[in-house]
Amino acid sequence: DTEVTQTPKHLVMGMTNKKSLKCEQHMGHRAMYWYKQKAKKPPELMFVYSYEKLSINESVPSRFSPECPNSSLLNLHLHALQPEDSALYLCASSQDSPTSGNTIYFGEGSWLTVV
Amino acid sequence: QKEVEQNSGPLSVPEGAIASLNCTYSDRGSQSFFWYRQYSGKSPELIMFIYSNGDKEDGRFTAQLNKASQYVSLLIRDSQPSDSATYLCAVNRGQGAQKLVFGQGTRLTINP
Question: pLDDT tens for residues A52-68?
């Protein structure tokens, strides 16, 4: 079982709605990530938080707004999404030691459908 | 050229045989490499990671890395139907917080 917990598992939202995806980990990891995965495609990195600070934003549209309230929690706020934003949103975490070998562990994902 | 390339498959292997999955990468400075398994409708699950040239074995799985050839492979011995999944090769581009770049994935089917 994954130790990265994501809620909700499924979300259907209209294009004018505001919703949030939530992620929690208790492995003491200090790096947390949001990935987006479309059907039959690999995961694509969206955001990286390192020690609760946003360190990487892969040119993601502003309708996606990440938030890291503390070292265990990561949110993704959604507003005015488009149908093409429908995808599996994966949260992940890892150690943030100064090496290249910190293993990333994924949560089970949140399936988002925008109607 | 894509940063991480895999054959998309599908790769079909009889039960009990060895499945061989291959991956090449373009950034010669890459230092850490990961194999994830993803069942349909599920999230990626870490299978193996490898940092050094050579082979690394874990149960039925062996990862092989050749940095000179920029090549990573995953061997699955005694393949089982439960191994049927998409296998994602990932290369890390960062230090500290990781910046994983994934290949397109290889869909593997083990035939009973």
Answer: 999 988 899 999 999 99
Q: Which of B32, B88, B97 sits opposite A31 (nearest CB)?
A: B97
SS (H, E, C) chain B: CCCEEECCCCEEEECCCCEEEEEEECCCCCCCEEEEEECCCCCCEEEEEECCCEEEEECCEEEEEECCCCEEEEEECCCCHHHCEEEEEEEECCCCCCCEEECCCEEEEEEC
pLDDT at A97 over 80: no
CA angle B30, B106, A107 (to 5 degrees): 75
- Residue A30 identity: R
Alpha-carbon distance B29 to nearest alpha carbon in chain A (angstroms): 11
Task: Answer yes or no: do A100 and B88 touch at CB < 8 A.
Answer: no
B76 Cβ contact partners less than 8 Å away, ≥ 6 residues apart: B18, B19, B21, B60, B61, B83, B108
Among all residues of chain A, which has the CA nearest to that of B105?
Answer: A42
B59 interfacial to chain A (CB closer than 8 Å): no
Cβ distance of A100 and B42 shorter than 8 Å: no
